[in-house]
Batch of 2 targets.
Target 1
Amino acid sequence: MTTHAPHTAQSVTLPASLDEAVAALAAMPAAVPVAGGTDLMASVNKGLLRPAALVGLGRMSELRGWHYQDGHALLGAGLTHARMGRPDFAALIPALAASARAAGPPQIRNAGTLGGNIATAAPTGDTLPVLAALEATLVVAGPGGARREIPVTHLLAGREMLAPAELIGFVRVPLLHAPQVYLKATARTGPGRATTSVAVVLDPARRGVRCAVGAVAPMPLRPLEAERWIASLIDWDGARGLTQEALAAFGEYVAAACVPDPLPPADGGEAPQPSPAVLHLRRTVATLARRALGRALS
Ligand SMILES: Cc1cc2nc3c(=O)[nH]c(=O)nc-3n(C[C@H](O)[C@H](O)[C@H](O)COP(=O)(O)OP(=O)(O)OC[C@H]3O[C@@H](n4cnc5c(N)ncnc54)[C@H](O)[C@@H]3O)c2cc1C
């Protein structure tokens, strides 16, 4: 790990286990955890952050892989985007693999981790809409070996926070054994941050379609009514196909839910027309949602 920051941390601790890392953070309240450093060191280099001490999470082998439990995969927070992009992981959770492959250039994917992506909680975070659509939960480690579980979306929405010295240990993801798709629009060709992203996940056991839209709001949005409506049109015991009209209507439904019209003024006047930027965003969301569902069903 290198930095050009003028003020570097006074101490760097490299624990070998999750509980040791939590203990190190509890012992040094001013210390900050660092995984791949791609977000954190960018803030340090910009002078936005001057951590007095760092607790490096890179040596914790238990967080770099995954294991299975009750029909779920427990993904270590230290899984890199590069690792999640590989074929064996893609066979397990295809949309998460696709989002990891879409996250930045190769240097970033080699270092950046799942836990860092979640903890940073940037609206453009590529894994976040996928985790929202999968209804994933976080296994949070705290002092004294404590573990608690919270939905990823609660952390992203600020409904629940990480307490001091707590770390994201694992991400619990259901194994649905069904098609899932992640699509991303960027403002330029080549790697770039999402201007819009859409994850669509089929859940045949519950006869459900789950969709989440990223980058258009501070956290991923779930268009629940659109999900229920389109799921009711699918012949789950048959070919599972939908007409082009139904796919297009799903796209419009998702876009209207996630990029709403401007509100009327408080004094009761007429609502302003949506700006060209809003109309463009809505078109992009509609297109991605239509394509993602079409691919999932094809
Ligand atoms: C040039 C560039 C391009 C990028 N492009 C993309 C992109 O296209 N898509 C995208 O999604 N992201 C992108 N990123 C952002 C970044 O790479 C990802 O968010 C990455 O997943 C962060 O992981 P990390 O391990 O590097 O986190 P770090 O930088 O190590 O940590 C980030 C934050 O998370 C905290 N943290 C880390 N691990 C844990 C944990 N286990 N528990 C609790 N807190 C933790 C740290 O304290 C810190 O506050 C880009 C970054 C750069 C610099």
Target 2
Amino acid sequence: MSKGPNTWLARLTGYIVPDPSNHVQLFLVGIAGFFIVRSIIAALTRKGPERFSMDSVRNQPVPAKRNFTPRELSEFDGKDDSTPVYMSVKGIVYDVSASRHFYGPSGPYKNFAGRDASRGLAFNNFDTSVLSDLDGPVDKLEDLDKSEWASLDEWATFFAGKYPPVGNLVEPPALESKEESKEKSKEESKKDQ
Ligand code: HEM
């Protein structure tokens, strides 16, 4: 194997390291070097929206999770285009705005918009008669049978996988205190026995 100027190593270094006697080659390598160094400096010192910074991550609005009474939830029924569409499944309120074609006023499932849809999903029935009263207690679904629970659970998994949760469905405060006092009096009467 020859170690002369024609070895592969000599040819490779010939491409990278300019021949000092070849002025054109020196000039071209100089220009290329200038642009490479300039773009590295520009990338390191660049300011502006295209440069990643932790601040841009920290400043993202975090969707606030909140509690909705059935009446409050009903404001998100999709009738107002500028308001998101929410519906509740098993106590979790989901933002279903991405599917206004389903839940908007002319969609097939409009009755679920702004409502606790749990019982409707358990019964596979979107009629309003199945849904609970807006000013009544939150539906505890205690009377559902096994297959109705299975249906509801399947829907709950579907909604959890498709839509962002925005909060929880809660008892209206007046009813909550009534429920609490009911519970207390139940406990007290048990103690008395
Ligand atoms: C005539 C009977 C029905 C037909 C032909 C039908 C058809 C459909 C179709 C084609 C979809 C879209 C599926 C997809 O995006 O992959 C859908 C979704 C859905 N259906 Fe029905 N459906 C019927 C009855 C019902 C009933 C009785 C309920 C009541 C619970 C219901 C609740 C839903 C819901 C909640 C969705 C999901 C919408 C979403 O993606 O958010 N459907 N249905």
